[in-house]
Amino acid sequence: MWPRRKSTKSFATGRAWVEINLENLRHNVTVLKGMLPSECQLMPAVKANAYGLGAVRLCKELNRLGIRAFCVATALEGAELRKGGVKGEILILGYTHPKQLDLVKRYRLMQTVVDYQYAQTLRNYGKRLTVHLAIDTGMGRLGESAHNLESILEVFTYNNLNVEGIFTHLSAQSKDYTHTQVALFSELLNGLEGRGVGALKAHLQSSYGILHCPGLNYAYARVGIALYGAANHDELKPVLSIKARVSVVKTVAAGQAIGYGLGFIAPKDMKIAVISIGYGDGLPRALSCGVGMVLIHGARASILGYVCMDQTIVDVSSINRVYQGDTAVILGKSGALEMSAESIAKQLQTVPNEILSRLGTRLTRVYTH
To answer: Which H or E element spans position 201?
Structure first.
């Protein structure tokens, strides 16, 4: 029989990890609150594991800061928050299959009415649910059209649905288009009030709305990427960094192939390092073949060849004293240099939200205060 060993805490930064700076999170909460009318509360978007930062841990910190409203994408995400001890209102922004509505009920979640047809589904469920109505003011995605006042009014007659809130989503195309959406939403709210429906918790602003139209006075502001410091705003601080270990350092001769598919042929003798992170961890493969880089000892190291599932090869020819076990920074600061989610997103013609939300589950999350 094998002898029992005492359990030891795993070493969190052994391979590749995400560092979450809770001090910067608290700073961003203060900044964002200061941009909004005093009556408007933050409703952090913590879907997709809080954009990769770890939803339960992050929400509990936000609870500690007095935040009592959150939004998620799915019923399962909401249930995980409840099981993790998160307090306050949790709104499911998306569609929930009728067979999952018991989760909504059991974990005291709020369900979005994604359109008039779905309102019938929720009515047929029979059990009492708290809901928010989604209104389409020009996003062309979820929501009953803002022009369909009669259909929207009918939902308020369904006895099992407690309609607590109503919201729309800005498409963030231009200020003129945003003003059109805001005006259409306000017109609908006035129409509802004129028909005796008032006291609804209305919300419209996302991160875009807060940063570009901070004076709008609604019950909530559904803040996501701005809260995590990955939006373009001078006062906000990045909450997340991504780091990985150097696993191998070697020299390669001129003419030697590096990586899959002969993606890189060394034009001269070079020194390379293998970094223990890949697309299986959420590092975009589109950064391959010199498009992207990492930071090591405050210097840039270009990605050579194709990003692999678990490893990435970089050029460290011009960086002194790179050793096995050293730290490479994929996102964050190293010396005087910084790689931001926004800069990587611009390289790949996407948005920071995608960069963060695709971070893999095998990246350990390390929280600093």
So the answer is: strand 201-205
73: three-class secondary structure by DSSP: coil
Do residues 293 and 326 touch, judged by C-beta distance below 8 A? no
Distance of CA 226 to the CA centre of its chain: 10
Rounded mean pLDDT of 234-260?
Answer: 97
93 near 44, Cβ under 8 Å? no
What pTM did the predictor assign?
0.93
**Alpha-carbon torsion angle 182, 188, 189, 191, nearest 10:** 150
Q: Among residues 26, 16, 60, which one has the least CA distance to residue 239?
A: 26
Structure tokens at 314: 């970089």
Please report the pLDDT score of residue 10 as a whole number: 74
Give the C-alpha separation, 280 to 294, whole Å.
17
**Distance in angstroms between the alpha carbons of the first and the last residue of the chain:** 43
- Is the dihedral angle over the CA atoms 14, 354, 145, 114 positive or is it negative? negative
Q: What percent of the chain has pLDDT over 90?
A: 93
pLDDT tens-place string over residues 34-66? 999 999 999 999 999 999 999 999 999 999 999
Residue 91, beta-bridge partner list: 71, 110
pLDDT at 109: 98
Q: Give the DSSP H/E element, type plus range, for residue 56.
A: helix 55-64
Q: Where is 81: in which H helix or E strand? A: helix 75-83
Provide the annotated active-site residues. Answer: 47, 260
Angle at 299 between CA 249 and CA 52, to 5 degrees: 85
- Distance, CA of 288 to chain centre: 24
DSSP 8-state symbol, 31: H
Distances in Å between the Cα of 197 and the Cα atoms of 146, 168, 202 are 15, 17, 12
